[in-house]
Structures are given as structure tokens and as C-alpha cells.
Amino acid sequence: MNKLYTAITQIKYKEQWLFYFLLNLLFIWKYMSRTPYNPMMGMAAFLLLCTVSIKAYHLFFKGKERLSKYTIVVLFISACILIALLLYLIDPLTVRVDRWSATSYFLDGLFRGEYPYGIHTHVCETNYPSPSPLWFYLNIPFWLMGDVGFQLFFFLFFLILTVYWFTESYTQTLLYLILLLISPVYWWEVLVRSDGFSNDILIFAIILFFHKKHYSFEQHWLATSIICGMMAVTRLWAPIAPAIYLTQSFFKIPHRRKVMVLLTILLVMFFFFAPYIFWDTDNWIFFSRNPYMSETSTGNGWILLVMIAIALFLAFRYKNFNQYCQYTSNFLVLFFTVSLVYNHVAYNMDISFFDDADFDISYISLMIPYCLFLISQYQTDNVRK
To answer: How far apart are CA 367 and CA 16, in angstroms?
Structure first.
């Protein structure tokens, strides 16, 4: 028993493994419980699949760049075939998750000349689009193709490409991809045509770009500020990870540049929101229906202040990119878990967690890109600072 305890405590970033397993097991329990199948069997199958996958990786692929490269191609093609099959078989109108329709209906309304933030989703008449404008614009190509779910193919490829570009390691990229593709969390995103994880991939990729190209408010401050402003107009939670990454840099620059950085970010945000702010200057409909209303309709101000304080503490504490990913992953788990539990207790205590539509555990999965980066890095001994 002592040897087992010692082995567990010596695992690098063991909490990331814990988050990865617990979140996937939680998804299995929540959604398999709604089917005729036993969720305990699903959980056991997932743990067995993880064990076999990790063992196979270490036996056949670790340190073998050429073999890993071709395996990535095979896995990507296989994943695309499965995604295509699921998109074909599942009628999105039967799915009680409205992220796909928030995007699709927004763009339908926009190109019809209707105020798009006033159009409800397919779930109910009180659900409205909550992403910010830039995210919708990025999805226009997929909307024009007839299904915004097609973004799943693009962002999976984009994630693979970005992780390899940053790590310069096919073996690490392969393990990252394996852990993603055996994750029920990821396949839930596919089943419901969700674009939340794709948005998360985009933010993660930009952070990797910042780090590898040494972008900060000390260097390339204007470009960094513009990109930060653009990230802020994808989703309300999108600035969390870049804020943790760039806080140290922000406080190192002169006060005059701080003002310039903040003004640039606000101007970029205003540029994207201006068409909707001035859409109707008679009734100013933007102030009665905008993307922030859905995201801020619940919550607690004191909890938010505590979370901001924790985020600032972590932002000043990290000393290298590994610690940044660790702290960001940990904070995202903490922030969304506390927020979801509070909302459930405050508003829906009379029903169970899993019957509460507002207890959306998919938000916790936003830590997945950072979590998998750390796990894959130390499993492949490809440690970067």
C-alpha cells in the first residue's frame, strides 16, 4: 500500500489525471443514466480503454516519430468518418442542447436582416444566442455549407496542427489525440453539435502562439491587444485563459501603455459590437437583448470577486508554461464547478444535479486542452518551459 501511495504521489500533475478521469466518468454517469445501458459498465469500459490505450502507446509509439505521424493521420481520418456518420444519423432538432442552433439561427437572422440576438434557439422561446459576434462570423463558412456542425472537422484538424506546431513532436501530439478521442466528453460535443469546445480550442491555440512567438504586452503590445480584444468577442468566458497568461506582462509595462492596451481591447470589442448596439436606435434593443444577458442572468457577485482574486493570485504565481497550463486548468475546474453548484443550490435545489438544465457540466470540460497538454507532455518526456 505504501509503495502504491508513493507511486501515485510522484506522478507529475496527478490532479490533471484526476480531473480527466472524473470529468469523463461524470459525463458517462449523467448521460448513460438516460439510456437503457448501465452507466457503471460504461465507466468500467472507459477506464479499461484508458489503460489499454496508454499501455499500447508506451509499447508501440513512444519515441517513434515516424510511426506516430502516420498513426495521427489514421486516427484523424477515422475520427472524421465517425463524426460524419454521427452528424448524418442524429437529427439536431431532437437534441436538447442549443449551441448549434444558437449559431445557425443567429446567422439565419443576420442574413435575413433581423436583429439576431433577439432570435430564440430551437430548445425554447426563452433561450437566446449567447456567443459574441466574432464567433458567429468564424462559423459562416460552415453555415454556408449547410451545417454548423462541420466546424467539428476543422477544429479537430486545427488542434492537431497547433499542438504539433508548438511541441514539434509527433509522439506528444499522438498521445494528446488519443486521450481526446477516447474521451466521452469530446464525443458528447460531437453528438450535440456543440461549438463550445471548438471555441476553447481556438483560445488554447492563440495562447500557444503567444508563448512560442513571445507575444506579450511588453513585446508586440498592439498586436497582442488586438488579438485579446478579438478573443473577448467570441464568448464571455474566453478571456479567462489569456488574462491569466498576460497579467504579469500587463503589470510590467508603463502606466501609459497600460491605458493604451485597455483602450485598444475596448475599441476592438466596440468595433464588433457596434452594428448590434446601433441596430435599432429608436428602441435600443441591444440593451434589452444582448449576448451577456444569458451568461450573467445567474450567479453571485461575491463568488465572482473571490474567483477574480484567485485568478490574479495564480496569474502572478506561475513561473513557466507548464505551471500556467496547470493553474489555468485548475482554475477553470474550480470556477465552473463552484458557479454551477451555487446556481443549482440557489435556483434549482428541488431537483437533482443531473436533472438541472442549468447544471451544464460541459463548461468544466474547458480545462481539457490544458489538461491534455500537461499529461501528454510528461508521458512523452517532452518537457518544455
So the answer is: 9
